[in-house]
Amino acid sequence: MPSLWIDGKTYEVEAGKNLLQVCLSLGLDLPYFCWHPALGSVGACRQCAVKQYRDENDSVGRLVMACMTPVTDGMRITLQDEGSVEFRAMLIEALMTNHPHDCPVCDEGGECHLQDMTVMTGHNYRDFRFKKRTFNNQYLGPFINHEMNRCITCYRCVRFYRDYADGPDLNAFASKNHVYFGRDCDGALESEFSGNLVEVCPTGVFTDKTLKEHYTRKWDLTTAPSVCHHCGLGCNTLAGERYGSIRRIINRYNGAVNGYFLCDRGRFGYDFVNAGTRIREPLASSGETKTQVPVSVEKIQQLVSEMNAGKDKILGIGSPRASLEANYALMKLAGPEHFLDGMAPKESSLVRLALSILRNGPARSVSLQEAGQADAVFILGEDVTHTAPMLALSLRQAARQVCVQKAAKANIPEWHDAAVRELAQEERSPFYIAATGATRLDDVATKKMCVPLDGIARLGLAVAHAIDPSAPAVDGLADSDKQLAGEIAAALMNARHPLVVSGTSSGCSSVLKAAAQITIALARTREKVGISLIVPECNSLGIAMLANGTLENLDERIKSRRYETLVVLENDLYRRLPSAQVDALLESVKRVIVIDHTTSPTSQKAHLVLPAGTFAEADGTLVNNEGRAQRFFQIFAPEGEIQESWRWIRDICPESRGNRKTAWQDLSDVIEALCQDVPALAKIQEAAPTSDFRIKGLRVARQPHRYSGRTAMVAHKTIHEPKPPEDPDSPFSFSMEGYRGIPPAPLIPRFWSPGWNSVQSLNKFQQEVGGELTGGDPGVRLIDPDGSDSPGYFEDVPAVSTCSGDQVQLIPLWRIFGSEEFSVLSEAVQQKIPGMSVIMNPKDAEKANLKTGSMAVIESGDMKLQLPVSLCESQAAGTVAIPAGYRGAAWIDLPALGESGRGMKNERNPLVPDPDCSGSGWHSDCGSQSDLA
Amino acid sequence: MLSILRSIWLVFLHAFARRETIQYPDEMPYSPPRWRGRIILSRDPDGEERCVACNLCAVACPVACISLQATEDESGRRYPDFFRINFSRCIFCGYCEEACPTYAIQLTTDFEMGEFKRTNLVYEKEDLLISGSGKYPGYNFYRQAGLAIGGKGKGEADCEEPPIDVHSLMP
Ligand code: SF4
Ligand code: SF4
Ligand code: SF4
Ligand code: SF4
Ligand code: FES
């Protein structure tokens, strides 16, 4: 441990870090711009200058950039001497010469790192008497606003966007004080991680365009820790509310999960909470026409009063997008045998297969951060960017691990970003993808194989066999495939942290099994094997751990006609089952009760609709694809009748209606009962402190201490300031009153520290800057294979694809923007949804007499679909990709075998290019026209 | 005894002293220009709303009696969608005026704000906005700041060069 002398004090610090990171970790305030814990150092801004002395006798010293200086034993530095203080103030002054002085109308204002650093260095008067250089802004799409005049040329944006996220279309242009950060022409940013520019840029150049629609300063936002509900990864978020609507989502650092970043779906998909599609009051259908009309709470009690007749008269359908608590409440109401998991049957069996793979080991399900450390990756059958976006960002880091290892050998520390990149050039870790078509990670892949689903499974099994010859062999493999399998096997075996990625999105169990097979084979010879299995929704794994019943044999249940009441929890059944089956189900019962937050075709057919809270109006626990249970907390108390789903279930439950006192009172009661009933989930109690947790007798305040307008916000409605709502379910208060220090990590409602108003204040919440949050990262892992007994191999090897004649394999095509149920209700996200088209290999298209843009008719069973065709060389021959999960599109059971033919001739068919297929004409070509000038 | 007589004498003398009491409301008292009375929102010299909805007054207010919501017109000019001051809470400290970067919010010499109903003390933007620039003539925030708005493009604010042509190869 080197010891470091800073301004007269000696500190013991960790070796291998840079001086800036060390100073910040010690709690010292040293200004900086270009350094970022996740991006490393490049020494571009010169703001972090400190003075270093040779030895005790040196009184002159020399200025060094802290972020570029590794700590060494016996180092003597000062932050406080006049020379370095003056240097830093002068530097800010120089950076500010062209600043447009528009903080009052800047969305970054009040949480701006440039403001903070300016105050910290003490520069406050402007001596520059000349004219300011100005720039024109660009249109960067629906997510990001551009205001280039505010730039201080720290290069963080391009370092994140290009170097970290491999985004192609943001760059630095021109030279000297003309340096410009933008695209080569107007147009939406292509990267799915563009939203992170908002937090990465230390100034107001890149700001959240959706926030602008209802702009609110950071100090006016009521915030609480939340968990993203838009995919199975469970990234940690901070959602902010003002005047009863959600205003924005930003990252909530979790060292083990999403780190510093979020994907654009998670960041900009929040608007469904504010949308007109919300169910805001209880509705009951009445009259002949069955129109739904608002009803009072008494009327609800009356409507459900006949529901008493014996428990087995109620069928409960849960949901992979509802919290464990809500699902458990329904399970209690209906009884475990009459409680179904609410996933599509195929999906349910795949999620359960994934769960058993994770449970039985031997591979450990990796966290997002661990995925980024992998140094050899094999992806089977997933387009990760679309099904688990942040995992794709982690995998992009994994692709660079070889550079880091190479640099370590050359004695270059990992944080020395420019040097590491310079040394490694274009080199990438072994990275293999087997998929049915183009994927968004193709650009980092060492090799890519496009085959039908069974081909993917066969390749996977061949890899397993190549690793361990005792694994079942695959017959009839082409030589080139054998060679590839051998190459992948060697890469995985030679790696320090091999990682196998697969998931449920292909809808094919053989693919999942093949992925598991590889990890089993790897585990025969080595200890650490990583696996990451992607699941479709935010609580898919949780519901699989909770419920045993599935929608599989629903028909029998319908036929038995034994149920009087059907309770559907936060689920649109028409997205899960063929509509005829759902219709039959709804008709087979006397009473349909739907508890949900957004109107759906299912809710529209219910006799009684109860308004549930979204993630912003309810608390609960989710289990992500890693098996990590995470608690999300209510952000604000909604007006009207909206309440947590479990409360609705409690209120309509015959038992608790009879006996209010013994019924569940708060969330802790539900969690306690759940943990007792379901031992596999018992650990969720540890995910966050319970509702009676206090610090120095205080709750944690959801509102910052500068929250404004308290006595005027509702003054137009009532002059008597209403008491803030009580929160029985969490240790948070709905007001400014409460503890303001650093709470336990799962309860951090915002990042702020005196003098640090921007997100960079996060430094103060970490044990060591860039590492864990103080007290450990939130969330508890529920699944950890002990690795003692290695499970046997799967024996069934799928045969080669047997499509004949016109038959093709229909494959679900998932889109980051478009396939997820709720983010698409966000106006900004809507603008990014690619049109619906089927993707085919040109050869298949030729066979079926189809061209780009012509209408294809796809038939499979009784499903018939007509969509324009988009051609892609990468699409495996014999497969057709069909958009899945789009709102309003008919439910299709995919994958399936089907036929494709030519539809009606219609010359005006819209051309719908495939955004992921290179050469599809999607990527904007700016031509010679320039609009920067 | 003597002191009582003295007091009576002094009281008697006061009968001839200059009157401090003013016959309000028949006669208006003098309030100095820096008096901190009823708050108004002013307009810039071009007659546009000065307030840019920056929320600084609201956050400076010690009793939190200002609440507003920012919005933008199609040209990017920011202004308050609503702006509410609850005068039944205001302590007329003037912090809002101190905090305002645009001279929009100003305290005036008017103190005649008595009401029988507290609800009448809730002023909305319509009640606050005056047609002139108040105590500070001349200043126009959008002429100084770099943000482009309708009628003022990039590089057209005070002390600004015309925008750079990024594609130019000239040094
Ligand atoms: S745009 Fe922002 S992140 Fe990029 S160089 Fe300028 S100030 Fe830095
Ligand atoms: S990756 Fe998934 S969980 Fe994370 S922010 Fe995106 S949608 Fe949300
Ligand atoms: S004068 Fe003081 S109390 Fe009144 S609105 Fe302004 S800041 Fe608030
Ligand atoms: S401080 Fe001035 S410009 Fe800002 S919101 Fe208040 S009145 Fe408007
Ligand atoms: S932070 Fe060290 S030079 Fe920018």
Oligomeric state of the chains? heterodimer
Low-confidence stretches of chain B: none
The fold-level CATH name of the domain at 32-138 in chain B is: Alpha-Beta Plaits
The ordered H/E elements of chain B are: HEHEEHEEHHE
CATH topology-level name of the domain at 361-533 in chain A: Dimethylsulfoxide Reductase, domain 2
Mean of residue pLDDT of chain A? Answer: 91
Structure description:
- The complex is a heterodimer of chains A (933) and B (171).
- In chain A, the strands form nine sheets. A seven-stranded mixed β-sheet of chain A has the order 15-14-26-25-24-16-17. In chain A, strands 18-23-22-19-20-21 form a six-stranded parallel β-sheet, with helices on one face.
- In chain A, a hairpin with a 2-residue loop joins strand 34 (855-860) and strand 35.
- In chain A, 25% of the residues lie in helices and 18% in strands.
- The two termini of chain A are 54 Å apart.
- Among the domains of chain A are: 3-96, Roll (Ubiquitin-like (UB roll)), CATH 3.10.20; 361-533, Dimethylsulfoxide Reductase, domain 2 (3-Layer(aba) Sandwich); 807-904, Barwin-like endoglucanases (Beta Barrel).
- By secondary structure, chain B is an alpha+beta fold.
- Chain B has a domain at 32-138: Alpha-Beta Plaits.
- Chain B has five helices and six strands, in the order H-E-H-E-E-H-E-E-H-H-E.
- Chain B is elongated.
- The N and C termini of chain B lie far apart (98 Å).
- Strand 6 of chain A pairs parallel with strand 6 (160-163) of chain B, so a sheet runs across the interface.
- Bound molecules: iron/sulfur cluster (SF4) (4 copies) and FE2/S2 (inorganic) cluster.
- One iron/sulfur cluster is lined by residues 228, 230-231, 233-235, 258, 262-263, 265-266, 388-390 of chain A.
